[in-house]
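Handout, page 2. Input:
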Amino acid sequence: MSGARILVVDDEPEIRRALRTNLAGHGFEVTVVAGGGEALAEAARARPDLVLLDLGLPDLPGLEVVARLRAGGLEAPIIILSVQEEEEQKVRALDEGADDYLTKPFGMNELLARIRAALRRTGGSSRAGQAVLELGDLQINLERRLVSVRGEAVHLTPKEYEMLRYLAANAGKLITHRTLLRAVWGAEYEDARQYLHVFVAQLRRKLEPDPAQPRYLLTEPGVGYRFAGGGDESGRAGERESGG
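Output:
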């Protein structure tokens, strides 16, 4: 992952300097810009491997920048860095195409963990294209639709399997409630969040060594879920709630 190209978009000079110094010190190639227009031009020119984007930009709304980056064909992960803590803002950013969201102030170790998780997900061959997903003690055979934990087969209902397959194929990425409901149940169910609470609880009972302290299926309160692959450093204490 060292050498990956990261585009930092933030209007605060101190944050730009801090991120450039810290990320370069960990072997990343870093470009910093202060506005949305510059970000769009730089992304089109250099095709970064990952974008760190502040939502409070002076020239363009951050959500518009996300949408225009995706419309322009950028497939690299976008991690939002913002002082805005509102649940609705996080969900809108993720639904527009962002991959993750960190609220300022944040710790550099957590940011680096999120960056590594995002680059693992997109680096090399795609998880979604693999016949077998292996994440910690969990193995998912996509061709045979078989799931095992520590070598022992686990019986899942069709919906449980589809939910697990989708989350595991996007391991490390924060998936909103609406996105997950659309992927597993269809667009007409995108507001039926009660389904998720039930199925997440069922999956944790079947897959987790301790469902009350999940290693795999982590909750981002009010926003969605992240499949951490057993040892993903991006899991936080707040995501260890077992209630969904």
